[in-house]
Amino acid sequence: MIAKLKGLLDETGVDWAVIDVSGVGYLVHCSARTLNALGNVGEACTVYTDLQVSENDMRLLGFAEAAERDWFRLLTQVQGVGSKVALAILSALSTGEVQQACANGDAAMVARAQGVGPKLAGRIVNELKDKAGALPGGGMGSAALAPTPAGGASADAVSALENLGFKPAVAARAVAAAQGELGEGAGEGELIRVALKKAAG
């Protein structure tokens, strides 16, 4: 599968771009934010991609950053959200705003996207609310909102749990709970030990 393209921006349209990679032009469908982030025609660019294959179509979706691609994949898992609707959402909202909307259950914010009605927006925030903390908010105008506890020891503890196979959101919540129980001065070893119990439980 094609995961990333690095080349020259050859041509752009309303919702697509052609990336020239060593003489081969790849047509990628993009959100408005990605198109703006790619720069001018003729300039070097990097696009993170997702290949979608259906019975009668094969299309490459392009994203200026990996966080946007991750959110695209998450959005398209929701019933009723195809690639066109997902790109519309990511055109209207930054990845950080999508994350904030899902985390806060703010369907009205998601409904700002073209072609997204209140009912679909409500389904999106309800289904993705628990997953909102697992993905970075990314750049493109907003800060990441992932609930990673601050501080060296807690950050290292979260990393340790992730290395053991726990999802980022689960690891972050477990370490945050452990820190709340042990106090701010807890060391990395203590945090990991308590967080493991909480994550496993």
Structure description:
InterPro entries: DNA_helicase_Holl-junc_RuvA_I, Hlx-hairpin-Hlx_DNA-bd_motif, NA-bd_OB-fold, RuvA, RuvA_2-like, RuvA_C, RuvA_C_sf. About 7% of the residues have low confidence. Helix 2 crosses helix 3 and helix 7 crosses helix 9. This protein has 201 residues and is α+β, with helices and mostly antiparallel strands. The longest helix has 15 residues. It folds into 3 domains: 60 residues, Nucleic acid-binding proteins (OB fold (Dihydrolipoamide Acetyltransferase, E2P)), CATH 2.40.50.140; 69 residues, 5' to 3' exonuclease, C-terminal subdomain (DNA polymerase, domain 1), CATH 1.10.150; 49 residues, Helicase, Ruva Protein, domain 3 (Orthogonal Bundle), CATH 1.10.8. It has 9 helices and 5 strands, in the order βββαββαααααααα.
Number of folding domains? 3
Which structural class do the helices and strands define? alpha+beta
Query: In the CATH classification, which architecture of the largest domain applies?
Result: Orthogonal Bundle
**CATH classification class of the largest domain:** Mainly Alpha
According to DSSP, the number of beta strands is 5
Task: Output the number of helix runs.
Answer: 9
Low-pLDDT regions: 138-151
The fold-level CATH name of the largest domain is DNA polymerase, domain 1
Share in β-strands: 15-25%
Helicity, as a percent range: 40-55%
User: How many angstroms does the end-to-end distance come to?
Assistant: 36 Å
Instruction: Compute the average pLDDT.
Output: 83
Largest sheet: 5 strands, mixed, barrel
> Main sheet: which strands, in order across?
1-2-3-5-4
Question: Whole-number radius of gyration?
Answer: 19 Å
Globally, the shape reads globular
Order of helices and strands: EEEHEEHHHHHHHH
Keywords: Cytoplasm, DNA damage, DNA recombination, DNA repair, DNA-binding
Region (Domain III): 156-201
Family: Belongs to the RuvA family.
Pfam families: HHH_5, RuvA_C, RuvA_N
